[in-house]
Amino acid sequence: MLLGVLALTLVYLVGSIPFGLIVGKLRGVDVRRLGSGNIGATNVSRALGLRWAALVLFLDAAKGGLAVLAMGMLFSDHPAQDRWIALAMISAVSGHIYPIFLSFNGGKGVATTLGVTLVGCPPAALVGVAGYGLGLLLTRTSAVGSLAGVGLALLWLWLGPAPRAIAIAFTAISALILLHHRDNIRSLADRKK
Length: 193
Hints:
Oligomer: single chain
Distance between the termini: 52 Å
Strand content: under 5%
Number of strands: 0
Largest sheet: none
Helix content: over 70%
Shape: globular
């Protein structure tokens, strides 16, 4: 149990690494002062361009994926391995959204969610990527793509053969992502009026 708590703490700390801010600083830009003020790949794209945004997307996904992969390996012989992986998924995404290194004010968690889901349930991640692409194609809005991807992945997890612990963890993560997209949702609603 103590090992699990220590591992989850480490996963949270890895999730807290603000790659968007780090990449921006290396380029001489504080991305929090530009565009939406977010440290994620979408705002990095506005501030620095697609190449740097792709790097941030990769790093944010990788930190989540590698942390969850390490947790799975640590508990590979444990009968509750799925539960530890599920807790690691939540911990990594929580780290990105509420990073200790930035006074608990981070990104929206979509790229890190992609990374943890690629490890926790790869088919759900692919469904999510397809949903994102479709949402972005139809609306040209990243927030819509993100919410569509998360929604479809969540649906797949509950209707498909995924372990219940992973589905429950993804539900909690989805709620966090929805909460942190509330301004985007309000903005989209205002446009429709």
